Amino acid sequence: MATYTSIETDNNGAGGGETSSIHAIVPLSIPLLAGPGSISAVHGIEHYLIMSLEIMLLSVTVWLTFLIAPWVAQRLGKIGIDVFTRLMGLVLAAISVEFIAGGIRGLFPALG
């Protein structure tokens, strides 16, 4: 999963000069799955190779999961998908409350 981004920039800064384009392809799923913490912890070429292998294995696992998703959706049915969606919403709400509580404790150490 990737997105293509094109940005127009003004080289003179005054608005009347020449413009140039910056083109970039930004990966959407890899930073979410193998984030900056795990990537920055890599030291040396052997760690880069191991991390690359882990990212490839994770990518294959995600691809296989997406591949069987229609089969799982067919087996669960509409009611099963609705129940699962509500359960995952509850889990997401619990995680978000925990993040907010941790942030408030960080801002106000006297509370925690």
What's the layout of helices and strands?
Blueprint: E1 2-10, E2 19-27, H1 30-33, H2 36-40, H3 45-107
Antiparallel strand pairs: 1-2
Number of helical segments?
3
Taking pLDDT < 50 over at least 5 consecutive residues as the criterion, the unreliable ranges are none
Main β-sheet: number of strands, strand sense, barrel status?
Answer: 2 strands, antiparallel
Strand content bin: 15-25%
Kindly name the structural category.
alpha+beta
What's the average pLDDT? 78
Number of domains: 2
Q: Please, what is the oligomeric state? A: single chain
> For the terminal residues, how far apart are their CA atoms?
40 Å
Radius of gyration: 22 Å
Order of helices and strands: EEHHH
Query: Got a strand count?
Result: 2
Task: Provide a descriptive summary of the structure in words.
The protein is α+β, with helices and mostly antiparallel strands and 112 residues long. It folds into two domains: 1-33, no CATH class; 34-111, no CATH class. It is 64% helix and 16% strand. The chain has helices at residues 30-33, 36-40, 45-107, and strands spanning 2-10, 19-27. The two termini are 40 Å apart.
